[in-house]
Amino acid sequence: MRYYFHIGFNGANYSGWQKHAGVITVQQAIETALLRIFKTPVNIIGCGRTDAGVHASQFFFHADLQQSWDFDLLFRLNKVLPADIAVFDIIAMDGLSHSRFDAIQRRYDYFIHTYKNPFLNGLSTLHPVNKLDLEKMNQAAKLLPLYSDYAAFCKSPDKNEHTICHVSSAQFYASKSGDRFHFQISSNRFLGRMIRILMGKLLKIGEGELSIDEFENYLINKKAPLQLEPAHPQGLYLSKVTYPYLDLKAKPDFLLEW
Predict the structure, then answer these.
(1) What pLDDT score was predicted for residue 78?
(2) What is the pLDDT of residue 176?
(3) I need a surface site. Which of 16, 100, 179, 254 has the fewest CB within 10 A?
(4) What is the C-alpha to C-alpha distance for residues 127 and 161, in angstroms, rounded to an integer?
């Protein structure tokens, strides 16, 4: 039977989600834990891929489990997994629902702090500037839903079948103190490094080094900048994955409480 696993992870110690040789990944850690429990290999398929160092406050993977069990799998899996990976729910699915291909929308959040803070280290990106122009960054962000081809903001556009993404919303928020920023973006799909590349350019706008017109020209001409300069990974979170048949609230929400 097919099961969806609703999880979250701190990606600081992992080379992304996708399993590949020579590095430690989230997928590898989970498959190792399932092997310990079931004594047989269990292949899992995630709802997407994350870069090294990127976090997920909501993530889904599916697995086909043929054997039954008479123990609390949720409890045992959380006990076997490292502390930086948590399983929140295990959901039995009808038919062959697919955690990656069935997703209709994904949301990412990117967090920035402008002062050195040991309690945010690794969970938010340090960007030590005196002032970011939030109004201009939001003006640029509001352009994103007006365009659909994101070839200019992709690490390797030629490796994709297409570069069309339907961004439904994109907005910046600031803390009351004005020294922390939060960018949120939702789309049906995202390209490789797309959000981090966008974030790098939006920060340039906030610093006054890039104009809104120059930013929009990348979207119009579909031509990548000479320097992509993606933002650091540690501030980025996959925060919401929505399916036509499943729409769960993410468990961790502490980062939204400023």
Answers:
(1) 98
(2) 86
(3) 254
(4) 34
Q: Domain 105-245: which topology?
A: Alpha-Beta Plaits (3.30.70)
Q: In whole angstroms, how far apart are CA 31 and each of 19, 44, 106? A: 10, 7, 24
CATH 3.30.70.660 residue ranges for the chain = 105-245
d(Cα 29, Cα 34) in Å, to the nearest integer? Answer: 9
What one-character-per-residue DSSP string does 76-92 give? HHHHHS-TTEEEEEEEE
- Three-state secondary structure string covering 127-181: CCCCCCCHHHHHHHHCCHHHCCECHHHCCCHHHCCCCECCEEEEEEEECCCCCEE
Topology adopted by domain 2-92 = Alpha-Beta Plaits (3.30.70)
Residue ranges of the chain assigned to CATH 3.30.70.580: 2-92
Structure tokens at 38: 């079931």
Q: Is residue 219 left, alpha or beta, with left meaning phi > 0 and alpha meaning psi from -120 to 50? A: alpha
Cα 239 to its chain centre, rounded Å, is: 6
pLDDT value of residue 46:
97
Amino acid at 145: P
Structure tokens belonging to residue 28: 């590898």
Query: Which of the following is catalytic: 51, 70, 179, 247?
Result: 51
SS3 235: helix
Q: How far is CA 126 from CA 122, 166, 181, in A?
A: 9, 29, 10
Secondary structure class of 255 (helix, strand, coil): helix
Amino acid code (one letter) for 156? S
**Which residue ranges of the chain lie beneath pLDDT 70?**
253-258
